[in-house]
């Protein structure tokens, strides 16, 4: 199931060393039940993720952890025509994308760790604007489809990010994408399309 934020806002009050955790119910490491296959760690895609609809506003996730999302193709965080700010968060082991912004959403991501997504760490599409600063986006080499940042008909600003170990591409763009990038480190030696795919090397 997804956690939908339609006409309100979500502002979890985490702190350093005491994050707010959004886990799968089978994540026994975060208070859930042991998975039916006998492990305390659930598979990717155990639950859908957080969905911020266009009616939501003032959304701020700080010192939060989103673990094992990605059911039914939903990302860990979906900004769907909304404004969302994500600071000092962990988005891990998604069965789809880590974070997706679409339909003219405005998304800011700062000082976050996005790891082990089967899709893209960050996905921007259909008129979204994404600003990402000082993040680590690591694919961990799990999936031939994983991309650090993918862009389709959207605008992305990247500054001081580390984008590593993705097997499709480090950054991929298509359909009138706009990328502004500075001081990013890309290391994706096993990427079939290289560090940059269909977008200018910056």
Question: How does this structure look, described?
Answer:
The chain is mostly beta strands and 202 residues long. Helices cover 0% and strands 43% of the residues. It has no helices and 21 strands. It has strands at residues 2-5, 20-22, 49-52, 59-62, 64-67, 77-80, 83-87, 90-92, 99-102, 106-110, 113-115, 120-125, 129-133, 136-138, 147-152, 155-159, 162-164, 169-174, 178-182, 185-187, 196-197. It has an 8-stranded parallel sheet, with no helix packed on it. Strands 2-5-8-11-14-17-20 form a 7-stranded parallel sheet, with no helix packed on it. The relative contact order is 0.12.
Please write out the topology.
Elements: E1 2-5, E2 20-22, E3 49-52, E4 59-62, E5 64-67, E6 77-80, E7 83-87, E8 90-92, E9 99-102, E10 106-110, E11 113-115, E12 120-125, E13 129-133, E14 136-138, E15 147-152, E16 155-159, E17 162-164, E18 169-174, E19 178-182, E20 185-187, E21 196-197
Parallel strand pairs: 1-3, 2-5, 3-6, 4-7, 5-8, 6-9, 7-10, 8-11, 9-12, 10-13, 11-14, 12-15, 13-16, 14-17, 15-18, 16-19, 17-20, 18-21
């Amino acid at each position: 199931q997804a956690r939908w934020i339609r006409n309100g806002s979500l502002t979890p009050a985490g702190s350093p060393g005491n994050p707010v955790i959004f886990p799968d119910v089978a994540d026994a490491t975060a208070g859930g039940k042991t998975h039916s296959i006998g492990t305390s760690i659930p598979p990717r895609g155990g639950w859908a993720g957080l969905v911020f609809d266009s009616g939501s506003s003032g959304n701020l996730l700080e010192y939060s952890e989103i673990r094992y999302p990605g059911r039914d193709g939903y990302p860990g965080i979906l900004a769907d025509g909304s404004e969302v700010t994500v600071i000092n968060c962990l988005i891990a082991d998604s069965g789809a994308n880590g974070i997706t912004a679409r339909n003219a959403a405005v998304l800011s991501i700062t000082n976050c760790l996005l790891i082990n997504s089967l899709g893209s760490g960050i996905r921007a599409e259909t008129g979204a604007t994404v600003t990402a600063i000082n993040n680590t986006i690591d694919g961990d080499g799990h999936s031939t489809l994983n991309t650090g940042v993918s862009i389709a008909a959207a605008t992305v600003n990247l500054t001081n990010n580390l984008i590593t170990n993705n097997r499709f591409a480090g950054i991929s763009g298509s359909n009138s994408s706009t990328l502004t990038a500075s001081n990013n480190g890309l290391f994706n030696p096993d990427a079939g399309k290289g560090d940059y795919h269909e977008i200018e090397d910056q």
